[in-house]
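Summary for the funding panel

The consortium committed to producing paired sequence-structure records for every protein in the target list. Below we show the first two records in order, beginning with the earlier of the two.
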Amino acid sequence: MILVIAEKPSVAQSIAKVLGATSRKDGYLEGNNYIVSWCVGHLVGLADASSYDERYAKWRYDDLPIVPEEWLFEVPKDKAQQFKILRDLMKDKRVTELVCATDAGREGELIFRLVYHKAGCTKPFKRLWISSLEDAAIREGFNHLRDDSDYDKLYEAALSRSKADWIVGINGTRLFTTLCKKKLVVGRVQTPTLAMLVEREGKITTFHKEKYFNIHVEKDGLTADMEKIKTVEEAKTIAAACDKKQAVISSVRKETKTVNPPKLYDLTTLQREANRYFSFTAQQTLDLVQSLYEKKLLTYPRTDSQFITDDMEGTARQVIDIICRKVSIFDGIRHDPDMKRIINNAKVTDHHAIIPTVQLEKQDISELPESEQKIIRLVAMRLLSSTGEKHIYDETSVTLSCEGYDFKTKGKTVVQEGWKTIKQRFKDSLKTKDKEDPEKVLPAVNENDILSPVSASVTEHYTTPPKPYTEDTLLSAMETAGNDEFDDDTEKKGLGTPATRAGIIEKLVKSGFIERKGKSLVPTKDGNNLVCVLPEQITSPTMTAEWENTLMQIERGNADADTFLKGIVQMTGDLVKAYPFLSDAEANRFESGKEVIGKCPRCGSPVYVGKGNYYCSSKECSFCMWEDNKFFASKKKKLTKKIATELLDKGWCRVKGLYTPKKPQLYDAIIKLDDTGGKYVSFKMEFEK
């Protein structure tokens, strides 16, 4: 029998249906000589630092840097049952070979291989590599299964990425948490991303607006301008000189311009536009596109390509025909697609661009959740736009001379709407209309025409600061970070990958380093402080972009994984040596004004005195000791601040006057902190000998 392992239950069900594995079992499906099971995401991951040595359970500067000689992998407790099912299936004597059917990308490869190795499996396996979950695509994929060795380099890159993130994350987080006495999350990609937000916020807060003046002359519907005059006196002098005087058209230049159709969507451009039109976060868009992929309505979402291959032309034409009939906002539109604009085999590596599938024919789109309908309409609009005609317009530039001064204006006349007709159909369907300046139409004028008399006026304006990042603009900045530092022939990847950028943004929000204000993303006080105390090598987008590029080169077989990781280890070791301490001013940046009674035994962050409790300051840590808890209440005692402080400092405290119903008199004992990392903190009692 052949064991097929997918990434998610829903994907496994789609595959099992095509293969005829219809008999449901505990954690898998079986039939027609196939067993189909699933991983539920990352079943196996890199072990925590404490798995290498018990002393790493506590966070201390002296233990850094932590770099494993032999890497350990573990199965999270909540996923142990599914791992056991897969391990048992791999060992099943009926199973002679496997098919890796996890998502066709870097992380999907890592998910399968770690389970395969952790289970100790040595049976041969093939790779299913598809970009759609349609029945036909699955059948085609199984008819052309690929050798596992074709993806060894992809796995190598994925594992290198995982180890690099572990080294930088574990050491950077522990280093600056112990120095600043507050849980500070440091990451290979998320810290440079935070630094970009902090830099933008700094430019906004330090911006000094400057006043300037524009002068306008007008006659018979033609208005021309002179802009950015620095003083009101100069502006008024020029306006007074021109008002009620004769002007002449000194130049009329007409130029025909063309706007080519946009490319198809890759994940990042789709996330950007979904944020712009619908205010979806990058993560929401990824979740929606993933859901539509699993419903077989869209192709694979985690792609960085904006083209399809020539063998897909027939399918794409079929999809375009379906869109024009099934997507109501395009109903009745006449569309003769220019397919050559979206086909480029050389620009498609692992996956092609995101487009709808022919499964749309069978789907009542109105039955989908509204958010998924929006994504379908957006992706459909892009496919039609990308295969549409060019948008052509005439741009007329006019210069008007008056009293020795030149005033300029521009106007547009559309020659061919082209693909913008499709985009306008989409925009007209939105409840919130896109705010775009209407195209300025100029009256007919010729060179040497005389306008007399003209009226002149002055308007006051101010320079504006840079705008805060939105998810749209931040994703764009992440995509191009560090590109200026690379050669033109370098495959640029920026910060993160299309598949990981949404998660990076969400981690920064969850950690309390950035927050959403409307559509804007802004750093918090802690986010600003973190970037201020970190060295440039950690916050530099250029360095991280270089790492991302190296990972891609490893994937392509053009770089060495060991050399890459040695560089990461060297950088991390240098960082630890460079920061044995911080100045008081730097270390105290994160003072909250709350009373601190010790360090959290779980993560090393400060423990605050709260209302009836003593709790860890880190939002990601659940450590909390309550004054009134079952252990102390049973002994008719309260967990006082003095006792809590000693427990945090030494791990134990001598307590007098404890009560037990078994004896008439009170007694003394040593109370020990017996924290196992669960929801509640435990204590145990010992008697002095």
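The next record, for a separate protein in the list, is shown here:
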Amino acid sequence: MDYQLGGEKALSMTQMVHRQLLTGVIFTLFATVAGCAAPAPTIAPEATKDSSASVAESQVEAVVGNQIHTIQGAGLRSPLEGNTVTDVAGIVTAFRADGFYMQDPNPDGDEGTSEAIFVFTDVVPRARPGDAVRVSGLVEEFYPGGLESNNQPITHIVEAEVEIISSGNDLPTPTLIGAGGRMPPTTVIDDDGGKQFEPQQDGLDFYESLESMLLQIDSAVVVAASNAYKEIVILSAGISQAGPFTSRGGLLLRIDDQNPERILLDDSLRPVPDAAMGDQLAASVVGILDYSFGNYKFQPIMKASFTRGGLSKETARPAQEGELVITSYNVENLDARDNPNRFSGLANQIVNHLKSPDIMVLEEIQDNNGILNDGTVDANETYRLLIDAIVEAGGPEYQFRDVPPLDNRDGGELGGNIRVGFLFRTDRGLQFIDRGGNPSAASEPVANAGELELNQSPGRIQPNASAFYDSRKPLVGEFSFQGHKIFVIGAHLNSKSGDTALYGLYQPPRLDSERQRIQQANIIQRYVAQIQTLDPDALVVVAGDMNDFQFSEPLIALKGSNLTDVVELLPVEEQYTYVYEGNSQVLDHILVTKPLENWLSEVDIVHLNAEFLASQRTSDHDPVLAYFRLRKE
């Protein structure tokens, strides 16, 4: 489940602190609305102010009677940043525990300039929606989470003096997004590093031009289910050239299309009900466009509700006689201390939806006590609970193989000792060839009396290489089926944690984690080449959560010239195993050598997790299945 940019959906400590701070602000707001006396948290504007962009005191001017669109300007930053403005007029549209949003009811007609702004008051403001106000203060570009968060700045007025002129006024007319209103770009988030401001072409500029404004969405479909932070991604109806779409209505991430037409709906101003992929807005919703955690976010100020789309979970076909079925499945930090319902849920999926594959390459298996950091590394109890649950669900009795990692050497949750493991059934003629396994020693392909074999099975591939420092090591095993030897490599490449966001400060986003994945991919590719040097006709499978896309540099390195990614053999609309911020994408792959590809009879990605609510799934990944019809020898 490793993710940041584009799966351990890892938040940095800084992000977690600011997420908690924001939550505190929201709870304080609701307490205040309810009439409770709750102290407001203090957020000092100077703490996150970009001092290098400030104007020296001697240069600061007082700009009297400015309109909001003049302060916002047609750009990513205010042209009046660092200046004091006086008597800025507007209507309050929403408030929080640390300030309020206001908007000019008389727009200038320029779609490139926002007509709204956030006024930071530090404490719960007196101003309420419908109040006409005049505000004087300092124009500042505020970075949510601080400069180190790599977030885009939001234009604020700070050190504010607020005069309430009247109350009970109508709110400004919201800007409609979608059919009959403004159409967001549908392909590019930013293609010039912010050098040009192009709201008609770049998604980043489009949403910047609407910053803090009231928006209206009349109808929309959900393209990413509610996440742990109650965020839902929706697509407004009637957006021309939206897509490409998955076979089940999601938005596909492509190398040249990041889908800026999607809008992230959040609950910072008002609670929002859960929704799953395919659900639809039941009625029009009005809200504020805000920004935090690397995303522009639509914050409803009125009740939102959804009609259920009724998306169902898919089921694979069972193997036919003589077919070998291999799957890659990320089981999301499974350990023996998990709720028994997790094991029964996984077992139900394996037996009833995946039809009990022959070999399962499982990622994110944890040790027997999970994140209890007591030196335990064995995962036999974790496997046993899953195996027993499969039997109870009516499936075969599987066996497992792995090589336990050295304590806290493979990344993931501290104490969890995450690893890749094999689960396999032997009732259909499949056998595992055991030759031991040492967590510190590398497994190598060797020729023994002219026959290709592994000196360690199960074994680990270059476990001491710097590329696998603090990261999961690839597991390799030797299997026999229908008289054929099959070499299976299970991999879980390092996460995207550390990459900057699609709507982040850096454009194009920085893919700092990619370098390590490329190094890991190169090592696995060379290992496959070693096997093929000894036997060009070797049947080799590389399966796992690669934490990257089929068109990415790590996957290009992994494929080389001798491996085929079977996911790419599927129709484009079926190519996704994970949904992140509304982008349906491939993170899980099965790659095979050409001799094994010749035996390939079918590929299936079984969509039963990624599109659904956390309460309806057992993992955040969908499994990939490959069917091979091997002639008996």
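Regarding this second record: Confidence is low (pLDDT under 50) at residues 3-60. The chain has eight helices and 33 strands.
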